[in-house]
Amino acid sequence: MPGYVYDKLLVNCLLAGIIATVYSPVADAVNIIVNQTVPVAPYSLIDTRAIFTMQQRFWPDGEPIKVFVFSDNNAVHKDFAKNNLNMFPHQLRRVWDRMVFSGTGSAPVQLDSEQEMINKIADTPYSIGYLSGRPNNEKIRVFEYR
To answer: pTM score > 0.85 for this model?
Structure first.
């Protein structure tokens, strides 16, 4: 009989979790944004991860990529890393640190606010970053990937 009670409790907990997931309000997704000079191409999640881990350094047209991010403890950065790159922020930081310390690359430029992100992306050709909402700037577009 105790096994039955345990199984019933487990099923009820699973159902409660599913219901909470389905009916919980979804926050606005983090949008990856780029300067209007970035070539439009069919980018994948793999391309996106390669760009933000500083592994892919050039756009398809040969122009260097300029990457902007927020600090590791920024809520938008945490959401971006987990939901857009399928990584934890500390994993992303480890990749950047390894490149810097080994001399094989550099970390992205870290910014402090979303307004600063908008300004940098708008003013820096071939740049990429992210925001908690959609940008309202004609020099910036949302980066589409599949």
So the answer is: no
